[in-house]
TrEMBL record:
Similarity-based family: In the C-terminal section; belongs to the transposase 35 family.
One record GO biological process: DNA recombination
Domain Probable transposase IS891/IS1136/IS1341: 176-285
Any single Pfam family the record assigns to this protein: Cas12f1-like_TNB
Lineage of the species this protein comes from: Bacteria, Bacillati, Cyanobacteriota, Cyanophyceae, Nostocales
Every Cas12f1-like TNB domain range: 297-361
GO molecular function per UniProt: DNA binding
UniProt superkingdom: Bacteria
The species this protein was found in: Chlorogloeopsis fritschii PCC 6912
Name of the protein described by the UniProt record: Transposase
Keyword annotations of the record: DNA recombination, DNA-binding, Transposition
Length: 401
């Protein structure tokens, strides 16, 4: 499998070089032409997925080692390149484009995909806990959960991580429910994400920031210091590098599990969740970058939206401008810096800053929707509000309060 990854990496780089060469040769290097004539040379044929896929037969003739790789895996490798190429040259519906595809160095491609599983011409077959891969053989796998009845396995991706090899199955689930009608929404909330508290809901509940990376920093510092003392490229360097990679993998898994816990708790509790559309990339360039990347707001919002779709609930993103400054009770503008964590308005409302923002988000997201939402807090509320903390230390699908 490591050999396959290395050969696919080389083929990816060669195919990318073909595309860049075609792009350079079909672009004019001068800004004006002669009045008489100007030689342009031979115009090469356009290079795309179909031309490169048709050249796979010639590749196997010139390099026999590629005959040992399943053909569908080589085609999926070109599909991956074609997707990155199109994202660079063509913008999406929001007008955004991806970066220029880069050449892969050794070890960058550590996965390959079998696009068909458990069918007549499939390269991968899963029978109980035995995975049979074409031209590789049978491998015993540990299923971390059983394949649900009625699900169809569409494709299998073999990938290498710091602690071993994994297979990721893509399943077709025809039981995903339709979103509940707007008229039937009974509960709604707004969530304000932050660094002091991971998030705060419009009804005053909040979740503490776990800070998995910062808690692991002391161990990471020692292991990375040991790595710096090793001779680069030696076996001891590779062993120590693997230890560091396992620590980072452990932190990433802790963070992902936490995101799923919070997402399931929110989606189970509310029919509509309003969140703020933050410019996370821009915020990550500030001096708070380490803390912002540690909480991983973007990954959490993607997870929450996926869980909401699976449960037939609604998620709505709104513009966050003014939500922290405007009063949720009277709508007045109350200027404050980031150091001020309490919202205190002249109308008599004094609550937590994040709570005030969450209520404003809910009000913005519920405009024009016939749903029962909070109309804001007024001076009848207590002068000082204390936010209750929700502890999420149970299984993925439960939460304690």
């Amino acid at each position: 499998m490591e050999t396959w990854g290395e050969l696919l990496r080389r083929h990816y780089n060669y195919a990318l070089g073909q595309r860049l060469d075609w792009l350079n040769r079909t672009r004019s290097q001068i800004d004006r032409c002669s009045l008489i004539s100007e030689p342009i040379g031979e115009v090469p044929q356009k290079v795309d997925y179909y031309t490169q896929a048709s050249d796979l037969k010639q590749t196997k003739e010139l390099f026999p080692e590629y005959k040992n790789i399943y053909a569908d895996c080589q085609q999926q490798n070109l599909v991956r390149l074609d997707k990155a190429w199109k994202q660079w040259l063509m913008s999406d519906k929001n007008g955004k484009r991806g970066g220029r595809p880069r050449f892969k160095k050794r070890g960058d491609i550590c996965s390959f995909t079998f696009p068909r599983v458990n069918c007549a011409k499939a390269g991968a077959h899963l029978v109980r806990n035995i995975l049979k891969l074409s031209k590789i053989g049978e491998i015993e796998v540990i299923l971390h959960r059983p394949i649900p009845d009625g699900f169809e396995i569409k494709q299998a991706t073999i990938l290498k991580k710091a602690d071993g090899w994994y297979v990721s199955f893509s399943l077709l689930d025809k039981t995903v429910p339709e979103p509940i009608p707007v008229d039937e929404i009974k509960t709604a909330t707004g969530i304000d994400v932050g660094l002091e508290k991971f998030l705060t809901t419009a009804d005053g509940q909040s979740v503490e920031v776990p800070q998995y990376y910062r808690k692991a920093q002391s161990v990471l510092v020692r292991q990375q210091r040991k790595l710096a003392r090793k001779t680069k490229g030696s076996k001891n360097y590779q062993k120590q590098s693997n230890k560091v990679a396992k620590l980072h993998l452990h932190v990433a898994r802790q963070r992902k599990e936490f995101h799923y816990q919070v997402a399931h708790w929110l989606v189970k509790s509310y029919d509509l969740i309003v969140f703020e559309n933050l410019n996370i990339k821009g915020l990550a360039r500030t001096r708070l970058a380490k803390s912002i990347l540690d909480v991983a707001w973007g990954a959490f919002l993607q997870t929450m939206q996926a869980v909401a779709v699976r449960r037939g609930k609604h998620c709505l993103g709104v513009d966050p401008r003014g939500t922290s400054i405007n009063c949720s009770g009277c709508g007045a503008r109350v200027e404050k810096t980031l150091a001020v964590r309490v919202h205190s308005c002249s109308c008599g409302l004094t609550i937590d800053r994040d709570w005030n923002s969450a209520v404003n988000l809910l009000k913005h997201g519920s405009v024009g929707l016939p749903i029962p939402v909070c109309g804001g807090l007024d001076i009848s509320q207590p002068v000082k509000q204390k936010v209750s903390f929700v502890n999420l230390r149970c299984s993925r699908y439960t939460a304690c309060s």
